[in-house]
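We give its fold:
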Amino acid sequence: MTVHEFISVAGTLRRLKNQLRREGVRLLPRLVWHLYLCLMRKVNGGRPVPVSTILRWHQAMTIWTSVSDPLSPVDALVISDGGRYPNPCIADLLSGVELGGWALSSATMGFLEAEIGRRPPHAVLEFGCGISTLFLAFLMDQLNPSMRGALVFSVEQCEEYLQQTRGILKQHSLEHRVKLLKAPLKPQTIAGFDTFCYDLCNSIMADFVEDSRPDFVLIDGPASASPACRFGTLPLVKDFLCRESRFFLDDALRDEEIGIAGLWSRYPRLDVSGLVLVGRGLLTGELRP
């Protein structure tokens, strides 16, 4: 074991000890579940688990424990230092940044990096800005160094996060690769479902993406304002995406996102592949032509 690996393991054990102190025996079912998740990752590799299987797991866990988000991994075992990200160039960007808390986990970023490398997108649409915006801007800039203008379009509800993200991008000379949009939430009925979601009428979206047709969508927002508030993201923007665009919903092992997975599975324009067991869960799929 290297010194860096030892420090990483020691940090994980310290966080786990602190979480056990806070939550006590309530944490035990999730610890057992986390071990099962690790086993399933080994068995399944990077293949998505069908939504029907996730729904069965969720039903079983809600019988076993009364805690909310019973399928969501234990925080202490997901959080890591961005400076230890496997790609050294990205690790330099993320040094000192905590991944897996509010930001995407290292494993989730690794999966997305591989997906972008496997099938490079023309443009990225993101819901919820932050460290993920920097990560995506860096990858897209590396893929398209000669192209001008924005390659990542990020929608955010909070002015404070927008300003923080602008500062981070400017610090790394990547501000020209990202176009940010503040979109407050409002009550809406989307595809027959009453929810709060971004205020994104067609004219706003047309001005925002202009001639770009994003073909890679990362949904990590909005922050919860009502049950299943992220459900409306794809239905709101579907007409501004490329045909067969890929989408990725983070935090997909939480109760709300599991519900969204079930709703999207029945939505006519979305082809849900399933849930990849990385980080806090990543629901994947494609927009149907």
Q: What stands out?
A: The chain has one domain: 75-287. The radius of gyration is 19 Å. Residues 1-7 have pLDDT under 50 and may be disordered. DSSP finds ten helices and eleven strands in the chain.
